Amino acid sequence: MATDNKELLNSSKAPEPVGLYPHARRVGNLLFLSGVGPRERGSKAIPGVELDEEGNIRSYDIEKQCHSVFQNVRYILEDAGSSWGNLVDVTVFLTNMKDDFATYNKLYAEYFKDNQPCRTTVEINKLPTPIAIELKCIATIDTPAKG
């Protein structure tokens, strides 16, 4: 995890950001994660997504995307010195609430059965890359700040 005096944190395991922002930023004992999607590090491919020649979504598997996005959140938390159990607030963005909410909600319940952070789920029209889910999270962090 690289850090500087602004407490900007980047994971060596989570996918590279698609813009000028860190994976997370620490403020006191809070860790704010930037939006996290299901891509895998080192690849533009998205688990469970099939694109047409123009880059439009032909089909996608919300279950694969959920597993991948939860894993990416875990990578960022752990690389920053926090943990899954320290999540206190999760905002979930879905691009298709009608078709995807039931699957996402079932998987969410499995991943969060031991820790129940506050949660908001909203449907949005589109995300910056051809993904169906993105998470925005806040967690606590108990390790001393660097710098």
From TrEMBL:
Q: Which GO terms describe its cellular component?
A: cytosol
Q: Which InterPro entries match?
A: RutC-like_sf, YjgF/YER057c/UK114
Which molecular-function annotations from GO does this UniProt entry contain? deaminase activity
Q: Which Pfam family would be a valid example here?
A: Ribonuc_L-PSP
Q: What is this protein called?
A: RidA family protein
Q: Which organism is it from?
A: Pontibacter cellulosilyticus
